[in-house]
C-alpha cells in the first residue's frame, strides 16, 4: 500500500490521492479517541488531506483537538452554510459571513490558518466578484493558503476562473462534487471543465451512501439501479480478491486523473480499506462491466458534440491528434 501524491490544481501543493472526510467526527460512533486513531492511521498510510466544514457540528472542534501533527496535514474547511438560521447574514458567500465563519473555524481548529478553504455551495444571491475578492483578501492576510468551491455548476466555476485571472485574484484550485458509479452527472460538464482548467476534483459520496460498499443503513430501500451497481461491485471485488469499498473508490479514480476520492470513516479499522483503493487498478474489462450495470447517458448535447467533432462536414477530412 503506497500513497502517491498529486499537485492540487495548478498549484505546487502536494496532496495525497485519497482525502479523509471528517463529517462524522463528533458523532455517536466517532469521539475524540476514535477520531485520533483515524487521523493517525490515515497519516501513517501517507494521507495528508483532512477535510471538514463549519457546518459539520463538532467536527472542527474535535479535529482541532486531535490534529497534533498540524503542519504535516493539508487542513481544509468550508464556509457558506448557515451559522445561525435566525440571522439573514449568518449564511452565504458574502464578505461578512466569510470573515465571521473563518474566524470561528480557526478558533475551533486551534490554528492561525487553513490550507484550503472551500466555498461550501454556490450562493446565488452574492456576486462571484465579492466572494472571490473576499477569499483573496483572506489569502493575502495569511489566514488561507488555497481556495476551492463545492456544489457549483460548471459555468459558475468557469466564470470565477476567468474573473480571478483578469483581476489577479487567487483562483479556485479544486472543486468538490458528489460522484460514484451510480451518480455520474458531473461527467456531463463539471468533470470535463475541471480537466480543461487543471482543477483537482474532490469526489464525495464515492460509496453511494454505503450502498456500493454493501451497506444499506443510509438507504433503507435502494433502487433497482443501486442494487444492480452494488451487485456488480461485489462481483468484481470477489474476482479481484478485494473489498467492495476498494472497488467503488478505485472506479472513481479510473474515470479521471483529476479525481481524489474524499472518503469518511467511522472507525480506524476502516482506514486501511479506503487507503488501499489508491493501489487498486481496475482492468478495462472489469470497469466496463461495472458501468454496464448502471448505464449512464451523457445526454443529447454530449452526443451531438461527439458526433460533430468526428464529422468531416465540420472540420474537414484531416485527422487532428490534438495535444498529447
UniProtKB/TrEMBL annotation:
Domain of life: Bacteria
Keyword Oxidoreductase assigned: yes
Keyword flag Metal-binding: no
CDD domains recorded: AKR_AKR9A_9B
A Pfam family annotated for this UniProt entry: Aldo_ket_red
Any coiled-coil regions, as ranges: none
The NADP-dependent oxidoreductase domain, residue ranges: 18-293
Keywords: Oxidoreductase
InterPro entries: AKR_Detox_Biosynth, NAD(P)_OxRdtase_dom_sf, NADP_OxRdtase_dom
Official protein name in the record: Aldo/keto reductase
Organism of provenance: Pseudonocardia humida
